Inverse folding.
């Protein structure tokens, strides 16, 4: 039974039946949790309730795992071509319903509708990419030193996979995990983000329409019992892999829980990305890159620039050109025409951003644009200059629309600063010097480097980090490998 808020949300869609106030287990949308409880999901722009989903716990998680195991038994025996065909249908449905998917993303995440449409395309691309990979996951034949023997290496899906997903890309962070799992012959139990469960539920509605068998994808919705559900997913023996995108702190906890059953893990954790502008850079391109990279999703991505290092010769020019552009942003409700930047996800996110800005100001930083809360979850896009290297922003990702510009003198100095952090997800720099391009790209301690671009994200690249940004890759053939095991068959003839 839909709530009045849920019915109102559903009416915004071309296909209202895509809006489910439910969890999804074994091919059924379930509106009740064992506890009987539900929790409300709010629109971060208006702070109004948009619907409710069941607050599920360990019991439902165990059921989901059992159904996923059963579904895996048959799915793992399908051919890559069969998996491709169903996944391709799934992809086509995602494309056909992308306007509705984008509407749900804006409703529950707050990002502007144009960005949400971009995410609908980006998210669907993982299903397409992995559908195409499903038929190309080749093995090997290794020449044997033993006469008459042949060594064959085959790939097999790892089994039931648990995916713990974040709210910042309500579609894409799920499809990049789910796409790889399905292509490899695995089944999935997703713990939906409590802030943004509805995109995920529309996704499985379309999966079912495409012919994905019951039990192959399961969505557990939870809020109060989130920690217990996470622990069950990590410790349950039937689950063979855990994939998580989120903070480094939670990643460490999940890894320690998953060690009890030695699960295969891939973790995409926090970043603190350096964005370096050298004196020889194309300044127009660097400003455009900084805007794309720092202010995408109002600064709420793990690969957003967090520390902008600008060489002294171009510092003043870069700062004023960036400030001029940022000042023109239109912050507002993502559904309003012309909105370029939406709200932050919740009050906790706002508090962190405010704390970082206050700290930068206290330490001598000059706010040249923005600098304060507008109202509710909206924060002014901000540029701060003249900040020292040890402010809070330099140590901890802000996850908000604040560009702090640090001045540096030499390549050697900036590399030391850029690498002086425990995490290493992405890094960016702008330069026209070919020698420097290779030197700096190789020296940055990160998993991904953007050179003369502020955008890396595509389904065909290996996305992931090093150091305390985690391990494992998502997207690309490397992403598929995270969901398979390699089996040797030695054959004596
Ligand atoms: C993330 O924020 O974790 C992912 C962003 C992306 O895929 O671009």
């Amino acid at each position: 039974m839909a709530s009045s808020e849920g019915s109102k949300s559903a009416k915004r869609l071309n296909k209202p039946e895509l809006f489910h106030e439910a969890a999804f287990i074994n091919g059924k949308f379930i509106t009740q949790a064992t506890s009987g409880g539900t929790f409300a999901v709010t629109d971060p722009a208006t702070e109004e309730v948009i619907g409710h989903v069941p607050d599920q716990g360990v019991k439902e998680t165990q059921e989901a795992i059992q159904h996923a195991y059963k579904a895996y038994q048959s799915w793992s025996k399908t051919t890559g071509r069969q998996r491709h065909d169903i996944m391709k249908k799934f992809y086509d449905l995602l494309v056909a319903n992308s306007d509705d998917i984008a509407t749900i993303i804006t409703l529950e995440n707050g990002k502007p509708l144009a960005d949400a449409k971009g995410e609908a395309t980006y998210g669907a691309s993982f299903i397409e990419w992995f559908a195409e990979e499903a038929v190309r996951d080749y093995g090997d034949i290794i020449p044997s030193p033993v006469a008459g023997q042949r060594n064959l290496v085959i790939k097999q899906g790892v089994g039931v996979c648990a995916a713990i997903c974040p709210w910042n890309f309500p579609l894409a962070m799920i499809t990049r995990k789910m796409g790889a799992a399905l292509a490899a012959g695995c089944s999935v139990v997703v713990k939906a983000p409590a802030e943004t469960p509805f995109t995920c539920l529309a996704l499985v509605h379309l999966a079912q329409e495409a012919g994905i068998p019951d039990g192959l994808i399961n969505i557990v919705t939870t809020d109060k019992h989130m920690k217990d559900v996470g622990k069950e997913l990590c410790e349950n023996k039937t689950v063979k892999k855990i994939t998580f995108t989120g903070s480094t702190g939670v990643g460490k906890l999940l890894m320690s829980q998953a060690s009890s059953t030695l699960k295969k893990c891939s973790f995409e954790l926090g970043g603190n990305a350096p964005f370096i502008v050298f004196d020889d850079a194309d300044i127009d391109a660097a400003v455009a890159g900084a805007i794309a990279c720092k202010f995408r999703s109002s600064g709420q991505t793990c690969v957003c620039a967090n520390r902008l290092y600008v060489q002294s010769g171009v510092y003043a020019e870069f700062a004023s050109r960036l400030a001029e552009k940022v000042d023109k942003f239109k912050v507002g409700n993502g559904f309003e025409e012309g909105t370029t930047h939406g709200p932050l996800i919740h009050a906790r996110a706002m508090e962190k951003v405010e704390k970082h800005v206050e700290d930068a100001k206290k330490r001598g930083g000059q706010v040249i644009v923005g600098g304060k809360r507008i109202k509710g979850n909206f924060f002014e896009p901000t540029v701060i200059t003249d900040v020292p290297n040890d402010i809070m922003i330099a140590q901890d990702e802000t996850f908000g629309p604040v560009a702090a510009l640090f001045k540096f003198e030499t390549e050697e100095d900036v590399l030391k600063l850029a690498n002086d952090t425990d995490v290493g997800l992405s890094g960016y720099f702008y330069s026209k010097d070919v020698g420097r391009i290779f030197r700096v790209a190789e020296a940055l301690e990160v998993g991904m480097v953007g050179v003369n671009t502020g955008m890396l994200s595509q389904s065909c690249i290996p996305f992931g980090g090093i150091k305390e940004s985690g391990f494992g890759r998502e997207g690309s053939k490397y992403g598929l490998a995270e969901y398979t095991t390699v089996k040797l068959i030695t054959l004596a003839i």
